[in-house]
């Protein structure tokens, strides 16, 4: 058997597993019907940790204060900011009685550690149910709190939401950023529905104080500067206590990076955190990436040599169709329909970029919380 024969057989296996991935794994979210939930009368503490975010606080905090929810407080954590963040927080607090301030000073043991600041904010929160977002995030509607909180129940004490990025016209980088965010979201939504929740994003995430203290907060990964959201969920979430929220009124949106250097720096931090996930999650995520990588490499080689062209093209198109089914339905749920036409191109560039970031992370350690 020649080398091209071997590669063709390998391509068949890869395509088979890719179709299973798109239609079975991602299909758990793609084909999931949205079910209306009853509004809850649960008091909520909205937690926002800010470090040098004066301008963003002035811009986005009003959208939190305007939420149409009967009983919520906002816990503003000033994480040793060097700018005017604390004064901005005090100005808002003087006008709104439901704002609580937590001013965090750097100490030697936890210098510049966001998890330390968040821990103080969580302890200061009045209510057991906590809803997290970032200082540069804006809820897309006045019903954000209502929608996220409606998924809490006696058993469901962790709620994973969607944190989108704003659309910028005629920007390939913006599409790439949003595609990566979109893929990550439908993946953690799908795995949560399969009973294997492995991450969430701090831009839109909810859980209880009880869950936080049950796993000793961030103590098991306090020395890892990043991962206050995904590492916590990786440790605390399970098939019984986790629910997802993807109604369009529950989304938050924030401004994306506008240059490749800044975004790649951000992604380096995120990817470096994933190595601390549970072993079974790391194996699954690594397998997904390897099969994506092999699909494109094998397809390019076989098509370049025009080997068994009819079979290879048929398999290539079959996999692309499966991708469009899963991602197409998901894009409608998450309001990312403008990405549909670019799916294969964006996926190819993202795979190359992720490989580059992985190699860079092996060579040098990325920076963390600013």
Automatic annotation (TrEMBL):
Segments crossing the lipid bilayer: 6-25, 283-305, 311-327, 339-359
Top-level taxon: Bacteria
Keyword Transferase on entry: yes
Enzyme Commission code(s) on record: 2.4.-.-
Keyword Nucleotide-binding: no
Domain Glycosyltransferase 2-like residues, every copy: 45-183
Membership in a protein family: Belongs to the glycosyltransferase 2 family.
Protein known as: Glycosyltransferase
Species of the source: Hwangdonia lutea
């Amino acid at each position: 058997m020649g080398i091209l024969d071997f590669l063709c057989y390998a391509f068949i296996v890869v395509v088979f597993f890719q179709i299973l991935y798109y239609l079975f794994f991602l299909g758990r979210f793609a084909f999931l019907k949205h079910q209306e939930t009853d509004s809850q009368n649960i008091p909520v503490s909205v937690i926002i940790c800010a470090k040098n975010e004066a301008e963003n606080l002035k811009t986005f905090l009003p959208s939190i204060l305007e939420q149409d929810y009967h009983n919520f407080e906002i816990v503003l954590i000033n994480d040793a900011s060097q700018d005017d963040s604390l004064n901005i927080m005090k100005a808002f607090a003087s006008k709104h009685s439901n704002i609580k301030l937590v001013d965090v000073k750097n100490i030697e043991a936890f210098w510049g550690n966001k998890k330390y600041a968040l821990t103080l904010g969580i302890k200061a929160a009045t209510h057991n149910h906590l809803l997290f977002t970032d200082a540069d995030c804006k809820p897309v509607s006045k019903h954000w709190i209502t929608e996220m909180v409606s998924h809490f129940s006696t058993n469901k004490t962790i709620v994973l939401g969607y944190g989108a990025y704003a659309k910028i016209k005629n920007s390939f980088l913006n599409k790439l950023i949003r595609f990566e965010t979109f893929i990550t979201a439908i993946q953690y939504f799908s795995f949560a529905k399969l009973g294997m929740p492995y991450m969430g994003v701090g831009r839109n995430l909810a859980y209880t104080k009880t869950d936080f203290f049950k796993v000793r907060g961030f103590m098991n990964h306090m020395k890892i500067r990043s991962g206050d959201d995904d590492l916590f969920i990786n440790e605390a979430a399970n098939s019984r206590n986790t629910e997802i929220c993807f109604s369009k009124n529950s989304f938050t949106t924030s401004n994306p990076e506008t240059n490749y250097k800044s975004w790649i720096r951000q992604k380096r931090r995120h990817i470096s955190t994933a190595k601390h996930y549970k072993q079974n999650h790391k194996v699954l995520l690594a397998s997904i990436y390897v099969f994506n990588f092999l699909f494109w490499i094998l397809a390019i080689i076989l098509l370049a040599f025009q080997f068994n062209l009819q079979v290879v093209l048929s398999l290539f198109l079959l996999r692309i169709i499966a991708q469009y089914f899963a991602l197409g339905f998901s894009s409608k749920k998450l309001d990312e329909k403008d990405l549909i036409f670019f799916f294969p191109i964006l996926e190819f560039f993202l795979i190359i970029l992720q490989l580059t970031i992985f190699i860079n992370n092996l060579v040098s350690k990325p920076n963390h919380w600013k």
